[in-house]
Structures are given as C-alpha cells and as structure tokens.
Amino acid sequence: QVQLQESGPGLVKPSQTLSLTCAVGGGSMRGSWYAWGWIRQPPEKGLEWMGMIGSDGETYYSPSLERRIVISMDTSKNQFSLQLDSVTPEDTAVYYCNARTYRGKDYWGQGTQVTVSS
In whole angstroms, how far apart are CA 65 and each of 12, 59, 103? Predict the structure, then answer.
C-alpha cells in the first residue's frame, strides 16, 4: 500500500519561501504513476489545486500561483517537493500531497498545517 507523508516547517514568515516534501512509501515512483501534485485548504475555505508534476517531469501550475510555485521530484529519493515563494498570511493552509495512477486512483498524504506569520 502506497503511503504519502508531507514534511516541512509549520511556521513560515511573510515574504519567505515555503518548502514541503512528500515522501512516497510502500512503492517506487518509477512505476505506473500519472502525476504527483499538491493541494491546499485555507481555513474555512475549500480545497485549492496548486499544481502537479507528471511522471515525465512536465509541470502544470495553477495560474494564480504560477509566478511563485515550483514542484519538483527526485525519484532516487522517492519524494517530490513544493516550493512557494514570497508567502503571505493568505498562504496559511493545510497542505496535502497527492499521487495519481494512470488508472485514476488517488493517494493522499494526511496533510500538514503551514502558518504564515511573523
């Protein structure tokens, strides 16, 4: 059973860079995977799709974030990462990593709270 686990700082100061990593356990990233992505949920709001990276390395980002976001993957470490620059308090959210197979099955991390505050 594949498991995803997010990790990273829970508190980031405004204007700094938010960096999160999603470790993939129980399976290799070099398999039948379609894409790896990040989704977040701000307080009292719905889920927001942030972006994803395909198994071929192609990235796709939300237009509202594309100037600040980078998603990368390291198959040798079985992990993928999120970098969000110039954060503001509006970036405070629970961040989830996601993996989707070519058959359309989704796997989710448990989520990690990130607060942007000075």
Answer: 17, 13, 28
